[in-house]
Every structure is written in C-alpha cells, then in structure tokens.
C-alpha cells in the first residue's frame, strides 16, 4: 500500500502521485509519513520536502513554508512557494548566495535574510557532485 501525495503551490501542482514515505520539517521538527499515519496538520518551515517513491526513487522540492495535511493515506503539501529540485538552476542559486551573503553582512535587511534562507534550501537539493 502506498500514500497518495500532492505537492501544491499557488501556480500549479508540482507533484501528484504515489509514495512510500514523505519527509518534511514542521515548526515542531522533522516528521516522516508512512501509510497508516494518524491524521495530522502542521505548519512547514523553509526546508526540503522529500517524497520517497515506490521502487526507491525520490522527488525532492525546496518548500518555503506552508502546511502539510495527512488523512486516510493522503499527504497534501500546500506551499506559497515551492520548487522541484529538478527545476532549480543551481548555478544561479550559487551566484545569488554570494550576492545575498555580502548584502546580509552589510545590512540588517530582513527580506535579504529570508532570500538567503530560501537560496540555502535550494542549494541543499543539488546533486552531491555539484556542491561547491
């Protein structure tokens, strides 16, 4: 038996399909959902969501806040901003990180700090061989 998963942002459904497990981070900490999980609703923090697919593959997304709801072997992730790892431009994210780190050192701009957190979540999803 598998979970039915939907990862949804305001623009579109990023992922819809079956999974063996979904791992995410809520305001209370990391949590993993398997079939038979008790009903759950939680607020998500900026962190990757990992969908473990049947057969061992994985779909990962950078999720920048939102909510997760679990009921009757259905997991729904609702986020104002989410990006599949396969759609992230990691080179651009590395350039953004450098620029934002400089700006954060020079200013107390809260929005700049939030942008830097989002870039770090994106970069955490890059393939191991591409880390810099």
- As for the number of domains, it is 2
Low-confidence stretches: none
Global outline: elongated
CATH homologous superfamily annotation of the largest domain: F0F1 ATP synthase delta/epsilon subunit, N-terminal
The class by helix and strand makeup works out as alpha+beta
In CATH, what is the class of the largest domain? Mainly Beta
Taking the sheet with the most strands, its summary is: 8 strands, mixed
C-alpha Rg (nearest Å): 16 Å
- The count of β-strands is 8
Please name the CATH architecture of the largest domain. Answer: Sandwich
- Fold-level CATH name of the largest domain: ATP Synthase, domain 1
Q: End-to-end span in angstroms?
A: 39 Å
Would you kindly provide a written description of the structure presented here, covering whatever features stand out?
The protein has 132 residues and is of the alpha+beta class. It folds into two domains: 3-85, ATP Synthase, domain 1 (Sandwich); 89-130, no CATH class. The chain has two helices and eight strands, in the order ββββββββαα. It has helices spanning 90-106, 110-123; strands at 3-8, 13-19, 21-26, 29-33, 40-52, 58-71, 74-78, 82-84. Strands 1, 2, 3, 4, 5, 6, 7 and 8 form an eight-stranded mixed beta sheet that branches. A hairpin with a 5-residue loop joins strand 5 (40-52) and strand 6. Helix 1 runs antiparallel to helix 2. The longest helix has 17 residues, at 90-106. The model has no long low-confidence stretch (mean pLDDT 93).
Concise structural overview:
The protein has 132 residues and is an alpha+beta fold. Helix content is 23%, strand content 45%.
